[in-house]
């Protein structure tokens, strides 16, 4: 990736449409269809633009200014201990990396899957470190997710990188994929395997946005085929890496929507005595009956209860 001086390319007219590949405050890095990257400012004091957005922008003397936002296909939110905010848009799929060591959180996994489902984004679970002796336990923990119809792929990113490439290549080709993985699950290894120039891009983007940081603490867009633009934006695979947050935000989900966004719960809907059943304590609840038959695991029941309580509290 090369950051080129701003200014219109030959034949370029304003306003132009570009892709947001990085954002920090009121500054966004916009990539043109020709592959130029231009540092742009947004109008006003706040910016709600996120990586993956398509924007209309105008050339200015020292860069560019965003003039408008194109309609989004979807939008995901992130949540930390202080706030919930949007962070990625126009995704084709979500890849959630987990591993047998360190032990992954099913609560975090479920939040990610619910957020993807609510936004209409297909999700894939990547079980990394498949070469470890403890892989059998991780497989058992993911068995309910396979039973729900979710795709689970197995990887050994460090010990079998070529095997991982063979599995990931068809999955990621011609798609924009958000990669999620808590610390220790192998996300950085995956990014560096598939995007060898990733570290250089982080440094260049950090300097351009004047963040003073050279670590992956911001959401960034990576093309899987490097700087080549011969195929055009629409036909190229891309990864979005968004570290530095703990959980997906679910502020857009109402409590009564929750069961429909969890496949094992959704499969048991329509058999409750009460139309507004919470599936927590009501008599004649078809979901609870399904759980009693072993169709919903105790762990999933616990997670549903925790999320239902959270979403029932004061809205953001």
What does this entry look like structurally?
- By secondary structure, the chain is of the alpha/beta class.
- It has three domains: 16-69, Beta Barrel (OB fold (Dihydrolipoamide Acetyltransferase, E2P)), CATH 2.40.50; 89-248, Rossmann fold (3-Layer(aba) Sandwich), CATH 3.40.50; 255-312, Probable gtpase engc, domain 3 (Ribonucleotide Reductase Protein R1, domain 1, Orthogonal Bundle).
- It is 27% helix and 23% strand.
- The chain contains eight helices and 14 strands.
- The chain has a six-stranded mixed sheet with strand order 10-9-8-11-13-12, with helices on both faces. A five-stranded mixed barrel has the order 1-2-3-5-4. Strands 7-6-14 form a three-stranded antiparallel sheet.
- Strand 8 (93-98), helix 1 (106-119) and strand 9 form a beta-alpha-beta unit.
- The longest helix is centred in the C-terminal third of the chain and has 15 residues, at 298-312.
- It is globular, with a radius of gyration of 21 Å.
- The two termini are 39 Å apart.
- The model is unreliable at 4-13, 212-216 and 227-231 (pLDDT under 50).
